[in-house]
């Protein structure tokens, strides 16, 4: 009986990550909507599944460790490890989310951000995507949100004073000429695995679509390269999620990684 319980705990714990992977990949490959995959399958159903798997693992561990003969305790502990790691990951995500304002539109310059082309805006509208330049209107595709509008949150998060949440999301000044920087920006966008939607390095404008691995969420990216006031170039980047109220820092991380790599590439590294 103890071995059966330990084996059942291990099997259920191994099936748990497969369930979450299926929920995410189902969204990516169009088997169901992101609301079904994320909101229902992962949040509404997945959280209780983690709890039940944890309880099963605790029961199996208690029975196999504290009752003689102590057989199957290795399987029981292995079965307990997966839900514990899952809970730790959920806690990490919640902690990160609590520190980041729920915005989905991030730019290095919020006073004069890069502007998306009419083609990108048409694609977003056809997909029912989040609004762009929502300002003080309620944000995102979750109408139940009643918090501050984009302007208030962006001013706190990305404004010229503080950069509280994303200190590295700032315009990048480079000593290199705009044409060389724009060419490097186009190459770096491709290197990042983004799909180019507008490519005009000569005009200092590049647009791309970045897609997340698991859910296949699409975020639109606009890159602008302009001459610097004292020579060289100034690069601004904007990354905007199509769905979801909060990006949990994904857009800012994308911009930071892109600018760091672009700085090396533009210098000839």
Mean pLDDT: 86
Largest sheet: 6 strands, antiparallel
Q: Please, what is the oligomeric state?
A: single chain
N-to-C SSE series? HHHEHHEHEEEEH
Counted beta strands: 6
Under CATH, the topology of the largest domain can be stated as: Alpha-D-Glucose-1,6-Bisphosphate, Chain A, domain 4
Radius of gyration: 23 Å
Structural class comes to alpha+beta
Broad CATH class of the largest domain: Alpha Beta
Q: CA-to-CA gap between the ends?
A: 62 Å
Strand content bin: 5-15%
CATH architecture of the largest domain: 2-Layer Sandwich
What is the number of helical segments per DSSP (H or I, 4+ residues)?
7
Query: Helical residue percent?
Result: 40-55%
* Poorly predicted segments: 134-151
Molecular shape: elongated
